């Protein structure tokens, strides 16, 4: 370490991005400090992945145990199935505190200094921290900004945290409304509709775009509509925006036509979850002190190496990762960016291959994908002058899925017809979130559908759904 600085690396934000960067920095021999203004672990641990998966696990069991038809087909009978809302909420709360503790210990064990307080850049290679004891200045050879994101609440919507709320409050599961409107059909809205319907609530999903689940591949969205929406107590409105939402009892929602903005319907519901995306939390970090302007949407501008840019040029020794960069707002993407950034700080020249980063919605069944959707792949193919092909395989033909009595779903692989390069993979079905990893690794390693078709998959496992798809692919070299 250079004696000229207090640290080799100071990271602002101890979410999963900052945490991943800190662990890799220690491994790379850097003296590291991490600055955190709130609770350790950021969104993922406290208000995101972890509590939502705990609620999904518990509510998913309730759904399964109440599915007489399914249980009967396996020869099982159960009596009345009940649940305790506050005990489910405690399961999520306890898991959060366990993982928060583990994450903190993993840093202290490696001698990463945890500096509590609001961090700001106050000059090149200089950070000020507003601690409980007053301002503390530290110098660092390199600085990584990892401030994350917060829920976006569109104009016209008032939240009170009780009847109208975002995922931050919903995860506490303080109460269960009879009827809840969910604004947004992205993965957060879908996961909550899974939780609420499993626990007996009626849900209305409101989506501004013309189709529900707009980020999914169209084939997957079609199956998701049939499996995750249609058979459940879910009512949907697409192409409408929530123009105003007023908290209270009832919550009043004015739905307007997306184009004309004219109110076309008024809903009166018990509660409303606003799941309309997230915005970066990059304000008040002193970026103006080093001449950096946030982009139009408030993200920190970075280049492919994750260096913060000023008028398009990298600012020396200043880096940014995670949700605040707006590249891919996922926990594992943030931490991958952290690792790559540390590599670059140490003199390497790496970039993140976002095409190989998978994403999942942990609904029952799960939905997952990596790479491009079919329409996006077609666009790329047209622009670059090659042909694509797609293959599908179905859970209903898989022995393990049949044994589980869970045969809904399909896997779809999109590939270059001439080379077999995988452009995208999409799965809906049992354990889809685990199954996607094979395609993600293949994209990362540049393996083709042909390469994968020769890989041996354990029988009988769900991985054979992917095996089947790879084997069905036909590559025609030109
Ligand atoms: P964050 O986790 O937001 O952490 C940023 C940290 O920086 C915070 O602790 C904040 O307090 C701190 N901070 C900010 N500014 C300062 C400052 N100036 N000084 C000091 N500290 C500061 N992703 C998945 O991959 N899988 C999932 O299943 C999943 N589920 C989700 C479910 C929900 C309901 C939500 C909301 C999100 C979910 N996500 C999921 C997304 C995931 O949580 C985020 O992508 C991830 O947390 C981003 O990590 P980050 O490190 O960029 O930021």
If you had to describe this structure to a student in words, what would you say it looks like?
- There is one protein chain.
- With 478 residues, the protein is α/β, with parallel strands linked by helices.
- It folds into 3 domains: 7-55 and 87-150 and 279-352, FAD/NAD(P)-binding domain (3-Layer(bba) Sandwich); 164-276, 3-Layer(bba) Sandwich (FAD/NAD(P)-binding domain); 356-472, 2-Layer Sandwich (Enolase-like, domain 1), CATH 3.30.390.30.
- The chain is built from 14 helices and 23 strands.
- The protein has helices spanning 16-27, 42-47, 49-65, 68-73, 85-109, 167-170, 187-198, 218-229, 331-345, 374-384, 399-404, 432-445, 449-453, 463-472, and strands at residues 7-12, 32-36, 113-116, 118-123, 126-131, 134-145, 149-151, 164-165, 179-183, 202-207, 234-238, 240-246, 251-257, 263-269, 271-274, 278-280, 307-310, 313-320, 359-361, 366-371, 388-394, 410-416, 422-429.
- The strands form 5 sheets. Strands 1, 2, 3, 4, 5, 6, 17 and 18 form an 8-stranded mixed β-sheet that branches. The chain has a 5-stranded parallel β-sheet with strand order 8-15-9-10-11. Strands 19-20-23-22-21 form a 5-stranded antiparallel β-sheet, with helices on both faces.
- It is globular and about 70 Å long.
- The chain binds flavin-adenine dinucleotide.
- Flavin-adenine dinucleotide binds next to α1, β2, α2, α3 and β4.
- Flavin-adenine dinucleotide (FAD) binds at residues 12-18, 35-38, 42-44, 47-49, 52, 118-119, 146-149, 167, 188, 281, 285, 322-323, 329-332, 334, 362.
